[in-house]
Amino acid sequence: MTNTQTFRFWVTCPQGVTGLLRQEIEGICAVKTGDWHKGVTFEGPLIDAYRVCLWSRLANRVFLALDETSDVSFVALERMVTSVDWDQHVRPTGSLKVNFSGYLPEIRDTRFGAQKVKDWVVDQFRARHGTRPDVAQDPDLTIYAQVAKKKMFLGIELTGDSLHRRGYRQSTGPAPIKENLAAALLCAADWPAMAREKQSFLDLMCGSGTLVIEAAMIAADYAPGLGRARFGFEGWLQHAHEDWQTVQQDARARRLVGIEQMPPILGYDSDAGVIAQANETLEKLGLAEQVRCYYKDLDDWTLPTHWPLKPGLWLSNPPYGERLGDKPTLLKTYRRIGEIARGELEGWSMAMLTSEDILAREIGLRPTQKRTFYNGAIETTLYRYQATPADQPRESTLSAGASEQALAFKNRVEKNLKQLKKWRAKEGIEAYRVYDADLPDFAIAVDHYGDWLHVQEYAAPKSVPEHKAQQRLLTAVDLLSQIFTIPVAQIAVKRREKQKGTKQYEKNAPSGQFFDVTEYGVKLRVNLLDYLDTGLFLDHRNTRQWVQKNAQGQRVLNLFCYTGSFSSHALLGGAIKTVSVDLSKTYLKWARDNLEMNGGKEGPNHQFVHADCLTWLKDCKDAFDLIILDPPTFSNSARMTDTLDVQRDHESMINDAMQLLTAEGVLVFSNNARKFVLAEELKARFQVKDVTLRSVPNDFKRGLPHQCFEIRHRFA
Q: Per-residue pLDDT for 575 more than 90?
């Protein structure tokens, strides 16, 4: 190999960064780049690849191309691998590793693909030398093989670990941004040009300081690869040691000059722990003189006077609120961003990365540019702004006075609270419904549980765009926080859609956060965060009270028992026996906990049965004085022997349940199917009384949430 020999190189990068990477490589090597299906390609001497490995702030990996073919087949792959003279790349006594991606009819697993490539390589060594290289995790040579749709590629990986691993990160805060994405954001915001003009940099939500550190390395002309312990090419037989030493020496010399000339760069965060980590990294890199991170909350931030700051760039990666329930807590954060931009940072450029346009709107400034990046799998947008004191904030789509609809919602909630005040005080109600889609623009249900609110969004009509529906939801949450004077963090937000099958029992995110509410002397455990429902159906409050009043000396059967609230009410009402049946082990355990909180204990008198209620009903031979039958509208759980449709199946369910009911007993049957019609045959066969109006509590009178019937045996 000579210094003038030309190679072809492939360079990968994060999604959305290809254009910036092309500009970067052309600047590093003075070469013309081309598009490659996973990034960028260029041609040049080996020293150019060394420069890219050392200086690229945006790349993930650099490969030296050995071969590529349009013949995508197993035979062509074998031919491509075996045609390489591997003695030129690794010693028979050395070590290697194969990274393989893609699929062929004969290769459906990447591990098997890597195994086949490795076998072909080592077979060549055995045939020539009677020995072969070992396989190692940190090898002398890493072979890269990829099968794409229209081409196959074979090369040598020059980088080893991905280039985003600079070597300076010891530990991180939550959700750190990758270093090469951070550098891409800085390049997209024109920071390299600003740094050359000695403009300053700020990150007011810096976390562990990735953006601050990358901004500092750019300003200091600090090659990002100087801190890495090893590159993949260092064990390769054609590695040009002198060229590599030359590239490194040049980089070290540039760093010395750059550090002396760099402008001030500051970071701030409300987490003192990550700030300490960021400053430790800056000390390690020798950048602490002009770069510093401070512990300060965004709400308390003002422009520092002890640093000579020339207006430059504020770039931050604020939280996005990927979970629906997280977003409302961020409204004030994004509004504060806009306040600081308008009030403190005249003449500064600003850029924010977020996945949520709704949150970005809260900044209150019109973006001058938007650019898409992917933070892992999350599609995000980099919004760029230029604020001046003359800028008036755009009206927030989420602020209390933003619209007539928002004001109408606020007035309606306050009116409902006033109407329910005396009733709540008289009944001692701790959990109740405040609002239930009273206004068409705010199709949500709001329930008050002690110091918490539970907000469920109904699916918006197809005529309402998704972003509009989310705006209205977050508007409501913001207003509710003001009305109830509780933190947004204590408002559980969920989206309720038509549920099918096992999705009705699906967990959202495990928090394990339970607390108790009291209802007519009965303690009941609720969980507002982990499940679609809370563990307590508030619209059945009156019926639970009726069961409690009529359970004295009764044998009570609770079918589809959910968390067993009817069983707990029956216990305190004096029931001599309760049997609770459900298909969910999770909810049966919850039901046991509820019973135990009220002085009961599982045993012969209080049984919990894990079973399909439909099957269990047909097999049961016991008799009961009071039966509660409250089935779901629909279920096709894999654990059931059949599907359940309450309209289709209610007649047979009731007939089976009535076989277990004593002569003087009563079956309480309810369901929440909107268009439910009770079978006429049941009315003829049994004594049926529609008690829906009596069963619906005051906080649900605005729209009947269920139908409820008392069914007794008819005697001539």
A: yes
Specify the DSSP element, H or E, that contains 685: helix 680-685
Please calculate the CA angle 391-393-395 and round it to the nearest 5 degrees: 145
DSSP letters for 555-572? EEEEET-TT-HHHHHHHH
- The phi and psi torsions of 13 (rounded to 5 degrees) equal -155, 170
Per-residue buried b or exposed e for 459-487, using 16+ beta carbons within 10 Å of the residue's own CB: ebeeeeeeeebbbbbbbbbbbbbebbebe
CB 238 within 8 A of CB 282: no
CA distance 574 to 524: 17
| Cα–Cα distance for residue pair 69/67, rounded to 1 Å | 7
| Residue 467 vs residue 265, higher pLDDT | 265
Cα–chain center distance at 283: 34
CA 497 to chain centre: 19
Q: If you search the block for the tokens 């020798």, which residue do you land on?
A: 286
Phi-psi region of 184 (alpha: psi -120 to 50; beta: other; left: phi over 0): alpha
In single-letter form, the type of residue at position 423 comes to W
The predicted structure's pLDDT at residue 498: 45
- Asked whether 512 and 530 are in contact (CB, 8 A), the reply is yes
**Residue at 126: amino acid letter:** R
21 pLDDT band, cuts 50/70/90, is very high
Beta bridge partners, 401, equal none
Choosing among 3.40.50.740, 3.30.750.80, 3.40.50.1820, 3.90.550.10, the CATH entry for 396-496 is: 3.30.750.80
pLDDT value at residue 325: 55
Q: Which residues contact 113 (CB under 8 A, 6 or more apart)?
A: 100, 101, 102, 103, 104, 107, 145, 147
Pairing of strands 634-635, 624-629: unpaired
How far from each other are the two terminal CA atoms of the chain, in whole angstroms? 107
Q: Which tokens sit at 228? A: 């890495």
What's the pLDDT tens digit per position in 64-119?
999 999 999 999 999 999 999 999 999 999 999 999 999 999 999 999 999 999 99
- CATH label, 498-713, candidates 3.40.50.150, 3.40.50.720, 3.30.230.80, 1.10.150.240: 3.40.50.150
The pair of three-digit structure tokens given for residue 287, joined into one six-digit string: 């950048």
pTM of the model: 0.73
Cα gap 642→639, rounded to integer Å: 9
Average pLDDT, the chain: 91
Name the CATH topology of 179-222+261-386.
Rossmann fold (3.40.50)
Residues 6+ apart with CB under 8 A from 50: 233, 240, 243, 244, 247
What letter represents residue 146's amino acid? Q
- For 715, counting Cβ atoms within 10 Å of its Cβ (0-12 exposed, 13-18 middle, 19+ buried), the class is exposed
CA atoms within 13 A on the CB side of 402: 20
Query: Residues with Cβ < 8 Å from 269, sequence gap 6 or more?
Result: 173, 205, 206, 207, 275, 278, 293, 295, 296
DSSP 487-527: -GGGEEEEEE----GGGGG-B-------EEEEETTEEEEE-
Helix, strand, coil percentages, rounded to 5, for the chain: 40, 25, 40
Q: Are 293 and 278 in contact (CB under 8 A)?
A: yes
User: Is residue 295 within 8 Å of 223, Cβ to Cβ?
Assistant: no
pLDDT tens for each residue of 33-72:
999 988 999 999 999 999 999 999 999 999 999 999 999 9
CATH class of the domain defined by 7-157: alpha beta
Phi, psi of 704 (to 5 degrees): -65, 115
Every domain of the chain and the residues it spans: 7-157, 179-222+261-386, 396-496, 498-713
Domains 7-157 and 396-496 alike in fold: no
